[in-house]
Design brief:
- The protein is α+β, with helices and mostly antiparallel strands.
- The chain folds into 5 domains: 164 residues, 2-Layer Sandwich (Beta-Lactamase), CATH 3.30.450.40; 116 residues, PAS domain (Beta-Lactamase); 109 residues, Beta-Lactamase (2-Layer Sandwich); 251 residues, Beta-Lactamase, CATH 3.30.450; 150 residues, Histidine kinase-like ATPase, C-terminal domain (Heat Shock Protein 90, 2-Layer Sandwich).
- It is built from 24 helices and 32 strands.
- It has a 7-stranded antiparallel sheet with strand order 15-14-13-19-18-17-16.
- Strand 1 and strand 2 form a beta hairpin.
- Helix 15 packs parallel to helix 19 and helix 21 runs parallel beside helix 22.
- It is an enzyme of class 2 (transferase).
- It is found in: Cell membrane.
- Its EC number is 2.7.13.3.
Amino acid sequence: MGTLQQPERLAAAERAERTLAGLVLPCDRLARLASRLLDVPMGAICLVSGDEILVGRHGLAAPLDDARRVPMDYSFGKYIVSADAPVAVPDLLAHPELRHHRLTTEHGIRSFLGVPLHDTTGAAVGSIVVAGTLARDWTDRDVAVLTEIAGVLDPIPDVRTPIATMPDLDSAMVLDQINEAFIGSDADGRIISWNRAAERMFGWSAAEVHGLRWDERILAEPVGKEFDALVAEVLATPSGQPRVEQGIARRRDGTEFPVEGLVHTMGSPNGPIVCTFLLDVSDRVETARAVGDQQSLLAEILEGLHTMLVVCDVDGSVVLLSRTLREFLEMPEDWTPTDVSGISNTVSRWDPDGRPMSKEQYPLTRALAGEVLSGAVLTFGVEGKDRRDFLVNARPVVSADGRRLGAVEVLKDITEQRLIERLRACEPEIVKALAYARGVREAGLATIAAIATTLRWPFAQVWLGEDANQPIYQMAFWAAPGRGNGYGIEREVLKRGEGVSGRAWSAGEVYWLGDLEAVGDPLLTELATRVGVRAGLGVPVRGADGPVGVLALFTEDQNEPGEATKAMLAGLAAHFGAYLARRQAAGFAAELGRSRNDFVSLVGHEIRTPLTSISSCADLLLADADEGIPVEREMLVMMKRQSQHLRFIVEDLLDLAGLESGHIPLRRSEVELVEVVRAAVSAERDLAEANHVELLTDLPDSLRLTADPARLRQLVDNLLSNAVKYSPDGGQVRLRVHEVDDLAEMIVEDQGVGVPADERDRLFTRFFRASNTVNSGIQGVGLGLAIARAIVEAHGGTIGIGELAEAQRGTLLTVRLPLRPPTVDDPPAVRP
């Protein structure tokens, strides 16, 4: 940079400023010409002295555009003067020394091209520079164009040279050196000046067009009176105020093309002269048309999208809303761009936790600040409509050179998906409530309360009926908190086709009525007026043999639920229908069980007395029997044995009936399960040895539980005797005991004949014996495991058959007993 500080060069630059200020050719226009010919937004003619002197400028940002002199920190010319050669920088951000230049950091300039200007001594005193906000690879042609424009000024005359010694400046010669077409015309629009660039552009020589009006030879439009009006308008513009005009020109071969002209007037002894610098803007127009076509295509694509889309500019003004979003917001077709807050005035937003959102929290606002959001969930509320849930993606829109242009937000309506998720989440609550319900009304109330709360609907009812052709009766009513009791919505009795519930009862399927007042039903009109609802939904409840009722729900929202939601509601109603069917079946089963147990008790008592008599008589006869008659004695022994066997069966039947009916209470106490198991195993060893069965145990040191000790011993005896009895070919019987989650778990595994897979579900029913045991001749009645099940269930436990490894045979039974007596905490009844 030492060249910059030479006193001779600095003095020459100061003299050049005074010279250029006095030239007839305006430097601002040359800067503009350079900018336009090289298609960049900025151009400047500068002299480098103690600071940078701007003698010509175009498109510079404030305050540079208003300054005559600027600090050297803002100078590109110093590099050109220092090099005394053209300097081209394609990307300042990639340049290690220039990336922090103030023109880059403060004004966003990314590239520049400059050529030097000299004085008459050949000293570099300044430069002509063009610059842009985008990176650009400068070509040799670009350098040549800028050098040619610089040639208009280079070299700059020395103000110390007397004017008398300067050669005359031929303006026509100057105009012939530039690439921009120049046309001079008089007050009538007749051509009086025509440079070589104009000849190249139109194909006519200066002699061929001289004296002709523009619209006679080179102008396609405007013509005639329109052209006269344009000329008059230009002449009325004060001198020194350039105008930009556009039109359609015509070449010699008849082809037409768009042009843009920089027009200004100047005075002369012969009247005003209209000076026009003309550019062929075909490329620009074609580019603009292509961009417009792309924008139109994009707009049509966006209009056809079902996804909602909103775009705002860098100032936060919403400039694009897709049709689906406009329809949701009920915006007119002729809406105008508005601030984000303008839309917010008609839309309320909540986060997933139901908290209202401020404008600063909106995804679009956050994206405008540079944040990228993916998969955010928010809730929209528009006046007069139900709330809708949306999945939102938002991100800033950034140009190729890193400038932020705005933000885009894409919304997908997930209301139904979220509703189905909530309905699916409330399904276990309904099942639990039905399990603990103390009656039909409580069960129905719990069902509609869960559904209506999930839907956020204010009223719901349960209707029951016996036949689709008969009326239905209101059994339960629910209202959301703050909506009053509302009891009597619709009526307490409805016929087929009356109201929403009667229509669903008649149709036998989910029925939606989106406008209660539109059907002309006085009942529904009264309903809408009295409680403020606008729509209703009826969901049939199906039992084992057909429809048994209707769940009716009412809302202010008139958006019909989707098919998936209706199907989910039908499924929830099916739980209530299954509950009703179970209660009916349970009633039948209980009645049947009572009858069966009464029969067993009656028969058992009637059989027990004669069996006792037969056994007693057999004992007496055996006592008096003659030892010499062995056949007679053998018959008495058989009679004694069979009567006892029959008595044991009767006792087991009575025992089982008492356990199942609850007539035989448990006598609970603290019991050491390990001791009970050891005693049972010891008692079973003789039978095990007779069957060649090895008894193995895996027992903890201690496991105490609260149970009936006699029944617990009876349970273990039954399981062990069964395992040993059904292992006729020997093998092992394993009994394991351990504690699992406050439960005592007992597993009995044998290597016997096993149970066929298709018969396992009947294993614990009374009198059941597997087909393979019957065929093998193993004796038994089929009451042992039934009694075991009754004992386990009386203690609040479970018993089941497990799966053995594929290569194993036999049976595995698992018993789980609570360590403490089970308690049933009935949940409070659901109230409206």
